[in-house]
Specification:
Layout lengths: L2 H16 L51 E5 L14 H14 L6 H8 L6 H11 E8 L6 E8 L1 E5 L8 E4 L6 E4 L11 E7 L2 E4 L3 H4 L10 E5 L2 H10 L1 E5 L5 E9 L7 H7 L10 H10 L4 H5 L6 E5 L20 E3 L10 E7 L6 E10 L9 E8 L1 H9 L1 E11 L9
Parallel strand pairs: 3-16, 4-10, 13-15
Antiparallel strand pairs: 1-2, 2-17, 3-17, 4-9, 5-9, 6-7, 7-8, 10-11, 11-12, 13-16, 14-15, 14-17
Length: about 425
């Protein structure tokens, strides 16, 4: 969009920004009406956002300062659980991947260049490297607590086709040409880093189509199909994972990855199922939700529509060793982490102390902050990338653990302010 258009739209955009919740993510709508387990799901009303009428000549009141999203507390390697075991080779390789994007940064250049000169992996040398070049900072939530939610994700396998057929009815879309992404920092410096997505309708900017509006029979995005797959539930979870592999009928494998999103907030369908007494909390793993969908096919689309967020995809190069994360480097199974970049900078090493999915067995390891996610919001909040395959799917689907995070930040540097 041209700069002149941005200036013309400034009053509208500032109005939308001023009505956002403190975190920049609209609040979850009120709970749905509750039903017995066998009853069909009720359609939840879409949230409606109304703004005061501010004419171009008026100024908006300054926004209320946000409560802190988190704190960085200086720590020591001796306080990190099992640090003495040393980082595994996968973590070291993931760090070298991060350096592909960070080695031109003055903050990271020295450590990245010395990492490249370290030679082949050796656990003792790699452990000493991190101790010599980094300071551990424990991440606290805004309320001072150190525990947070650790979930898991993976790279799924879907079955699809380049053409629609009776068997392949669910489209994966590429970013539509009418999707606008507007950086509010171009209009007001104090809104730097906050973006709006929408579309032009007449002479107004309106929210982009929600999932329910995209998935209607008279599809508004017809013509933007990238691929067609055979299962709407698998396509939905592909959007949550952010990337995956689609096997075509001839056996060809296409890697697809996140390209854009419609701007609507993520809403958990697990929470919807719990609120409507369809499933208990213990049953709302990914596997449990898929099982529910198999037994309630007529209610599936209504359930999926409760999450208005919708992801658009692109086809990735076939020779990538893993899916691309937000940092722009391939993710490494059990060594890459999705974080909230308002608190933890992308590329940074992060030590995670949690437990294996569904158990109390310690899971302590150094990982790299290389990805983000619509549901990954908060200081002590992370998504553990398990990799590709059925084992990764099983582990990711069950992972809802408590955990703690330590960021390893270049020695002598002050931690960034949480945004």
């Amino acid at each position: 969009m041209k700069r002149s258009h941005l200036l013309y739209l400034a009053p509208v955009l500032l109005c939308l920004a001023s009505c956002a919740t403190p975190s920049g993510v609209p609040a979850i709508p009120p709970p749905l009406p509750q039903h017995p387990p066998a009853a069909p799901l009720a359609q939840a009303p879409e949230p409606f956002l109304a703004c005061p009428d501010n004419s171009p000549g008026e100024t908006l009141a300054p926004s209320v300062p946000e409560p802190p999203r988190g704190h960085w507390i200086v720590s020591d390697f001796s306080q990190i659980p099992d640090w003495s075991n040393g980082p595994p080779v996968a973590s070291w390789n993931a760090f070298l991947q991060s350096c592909r994007k960070l080695d031109t940064s003055p903050l990271w250049a020295k450590s990245c260049h010395q990492a490249e000169e370290l030679g082949d992996y050796d656990e003792t040398r790699v452990k000493k490297f991190f101790e010599d070049h980094f300071t551990p900072w424990q991440i606290e939530n805004g309320d001072g607590s150190t525990q947070g939610l650790i979930t898991g994700y993976y790279e799924p396998l879907l079955h699809g086709s380049l053409h629609r057929s009776p068997h392949y009815q669910t489209p994966l879309y590429s970013p539509p040409p009418d999707l606008l992404t507007i950086d509010l920092g171009d209009i007001a410096p104090d809104l730097k880093g906050r973006r709006l997505r929408g579309r032009i309708q007449g002479n107004h900017v309106v929210p982009y189509f929600s999932r329910a509006e995209i998935e209607v029979e008279d599809r508004p995005l017809a013509g933007n199909e990238l691929l067609w797959v055979d299962d709407p539930v698998e396509a939905f979870f592909l959007q949550i994972q952010g990337s995956g592999v689609v096997e075509l009928e001839d056996g060809q494998l296409l890697h697809v990855g996140y390209a854009d999103q419609n701007g609507h907030p993520f809403r958990s369908i697990a929470r919807v199922l719990i609120q409507q007494h369809q499933l208990t909390l213990a049953q709302t793993s990914m596997q449990g939700i898929k099982e529910w969908a198999r037994h309630h096919p007529a209610a599936v689309q209504t359930l999926l529509n409760q999450n208005p967020s919708f992801v658009f995809f692109q086809i990735l190069p076939a020779d990538l060793p893993g899916p691309l994360g937000t940092l722009g480097v391939p993710l490494t199974g059990q060594a890459s982490l999705a974080v909230d970049p308002r608190v933890i900078p992308l590329g940074a090493p992060v030590f995670i102390a949690t437990s294996a999915p569904g158990t109390d067995q310690p899971l302590h390891r150094l990982m790299m902050a290389q990805d983000t996610g619509g549901a990954i919001r908060g200081a002590v909040r992370a998504d553990f990338f398990w990799g590709f395959g059925t084992t990764a799917e099983h582990q990711a689907g069950r992972m809802k653990q408590e955990g703690q995070l330590w960021v390893l930040y270049p020695r002598g540097a002050s931690p960034p302010e949480t945004r």
